[in-house]
Amino acid sequence: MTPVALTIAGSDSSGGAGIQADLKTFAALGVYGASVITALTAQNTTGVTGIHQVPAEFVTAQIDAVFADLEIGAVKIGMVADLGVIAAIAAGLERWSPKHIVLDPVMVATSGDRLLAAEAVDALRTKLIPQASLITPNLLEAAALLDEPIAANEGAIASQGQRLLAMGCRAVLIKGGHGQGAESTDYFVTSAGTIALAAPRVATKNTHGTGCSLSSAIAAGLAKGEDMETAVRHAKTWISAAIAAADRFTVGHGHGPVHHFHRFY
Asked: N or C: which end of the chain has fewer CB within 10 A?
């Protein structure tokens, strides 16, 4: 059977992040991609100039249309910036009970623009995180979800990961791309402990959509039947190569996109 993954996220008009990055990731990894659009953004590589929310009832209609027809192997959730939309997604997931849910708690764009309203953070904690198989916050987002300072060392990161697990998700991947040093280390946290996943840090400004693409790559692996740790490891390897190849592109004047199809051209 054809593996199918669904992305529930916002659209990026410049094509580097959000729905567009997710669908490119699914295609690059051999998975058929479907989408539920939660918001339209006016953005490019230099920033976000506008956000237009999709009505919650239409998000519900998209969810039901996709699940009623397609055999969804995994769901990735990205930008959800509205309380009504979060409630609609939570209800839809409860209704259709997908096997795997990867939640990327997108709060701030690569450009620095805030994408998630403060009042939506609590709804994220209480409605979506408890349903997630995996959440993938970066260091800033993990701290924001916990109302704590940004973790400064591996012990603090592991501790924050355990507190995020206590919110109800089954696993946490705290991304270290915002850290310092020669390596970019992500931390995969489960009830069994913490695994550090390191890759060489790439000196490039072309990192637009990195988090979206990583979470989608994990969802793609899960849709193909990989276990969680394997899916996370494979996704880490793939996104590291996509970042390393990003400078093959000359796209925009700000943070350009990663190279989703680096294996092909």
From this structure: N
Q: What is the DSSP letter of 168?
A: T
| DSSP codes joined into one string, 104-120 | ----B-TTS-B-S-HHH
Kindly name the residue from 41, 207, 236, 256 that is annotated as catalytic.
207
Active-site pick, 73, 110, 212, 236: 212
Q: Kindly give the pairing relationship between strand 74-77 and strand 101-103.
A: parallel
Catalytic pick among 7, 175, 176, 236: 175
pTM over 0.85: yes
Domain span at residue 15 reads 4-248
The tens digit of pLDDT for each residue in 95-114 reads 999 999 999 998 765 555 56
Helix (H) or strand (E) holding 62: helix 56-69
Tell me if residue 209 is catalytic: yes
